[in-house]
Write a structure and sequence with these properties.
binds 1,5-anhydro-D-fructose, two-stranded antiparallel sheet, binds NADPH dihydro-nicotinamide-adenine-dinucleotide phosphate, 10 helices, alpha/beta
Length: 275
């Protein structure tokens, strides 16, 4: 099994560049599916209060027999808990559900406008970070204007910004802003929930390198330097999506895939989403 590279976050914490996503895995399946991912070699699990499966993710991590220090666990704050004290309480509930003594990364899930000022929410996350209860804190679905406002009103720079990125939505501007400010980009829905897998360009490259369209797409993300966590409930795909380290895409392949950008989202637009 090849070792997964890590990305060094702006506070020196190391995060495995390839992880496992758990959105839409029903709670009753989450323990088994997450254990299958850990068994396949994944050491980074992405969940959220919104996904309703934190308890089962925590159960899988605890039942895996792995050292806690060897598994990187992320969760995200719900949109209805942005008030400062609500955020602190919601974090406590997350930790109770997970049954873990600390979290590796805690994110503000969305910069929702009507649920309180996210700079106040961020102060709660800073407190959690300073108390050592989360090793790193970050945001999700923030546009550069949200990040600017956050950084003007806070001390800790977010370690990551988790945004939708895939070949049909390459997000060059948000990623460039992150790179400039040492905020790592995490790419959610990295295969656009399957929508890019029938793309003829990706198919042609996959045929040429002898890999699947999903592997080619995930490899494209890794070579761009982003952090990814594809979701699958299918045992064979869980393994397939982890097997990304025995091949490389050429500069030409990378360029062709990046040129597929058509600014097409599978999820909500952060400037319109109200939670
Ligand atoms: N911060 C945020 O706002 C968001 C964060 N996320 C995070 O990102 C993770 C990944 O994104 P997600 O939206 O789940 O979408 P993905 O892009 O990871 O796609 C998942 C879908 O693709 C299918 N699939 C997975 N692997 C393969 C494969 N090798 N071949 C063919 N089909 C495949 C899965 O089917 P099957 O399961 O049946 O195998 C599932 O339907 C989430 O699970 C979540 O952790 C996601 C959305 C928003
Ligand atoms: O994490 C998430 C899962 O997907 C949902 C629908 O796209 C998002 O709203 C949410 O942020």
């Amino acid at each position: 099994m090849s070792a997964v590279p890590t990305v060094t976050l702006n506070n020196a914490v190391e995060i495995p560049q390839l992880g496992f996503g758990t959105f839409q895995i029903p709670p009753e399946e989450t323990r088994g599916t997450t254990l299958a991912a850990l068994e396949a070699g994944y050491r980074h699990i992405d969940t959220a209060q919104m996904y309703g499966n934190e308890k089962e993710v925590g159960q899988a991590v605890r039942d895996s027999g792995l050292d806690r220090a060897d598994v990187f666990v992320t969760s995200k704050l719900n949109n209805d808990a942005h008030a400062h004290d609500d955020a602190l309480r919601a974090f406590d509930v997350t930790m109770e559900k997970l049954g873990l003594d600390h979290l590796d990364l805690f994110l503000i899930h969305w910069p929702v406008p009507d649920k309180g000022d996210f700079t106040q929410t961020w102060k709660a996350l800073e407190q959690i970070y300073r108390d050592g209860r989360a090793r790193a804190i970050g945001v999700s679905n923030f546009q550069p204007h949200h990040l600017r406002r956050l950084m003007e009103n806070s001390e800790v720079v977010p370690a990551v910004n988790q945004i939708e990125v895939h070949p049909y939505l390459t997000q060059d501007d948000v990623r460039a802003f992150g790179a400039e400010h040492d905020i790592a980009t995490e790419a959610w829905s990295p295969i656009a929930q399957g929508k890019v897998l029938d793309d003829p360009t990706i198919g042609r490259i996959a045929d040429r390198v002898g890999r699947t369209p999903a592997q080619v797409t995930l490899r494209w993300h890794l070579q761009r330097g982003d952090i990814v966590f594809p979701k699958s409930s299918t045992p064979q795909r869980i393994k397939e999506n982890f097997d990304l380290f025995g091949f490389e895409l050429s500069e030409g392949d990378m360029g062709e895939i990046s040129a597929l950008d058509r600014n097409e989202r599978t999820g909500p637009d952060p400037d319109r989403f109200t939670g």
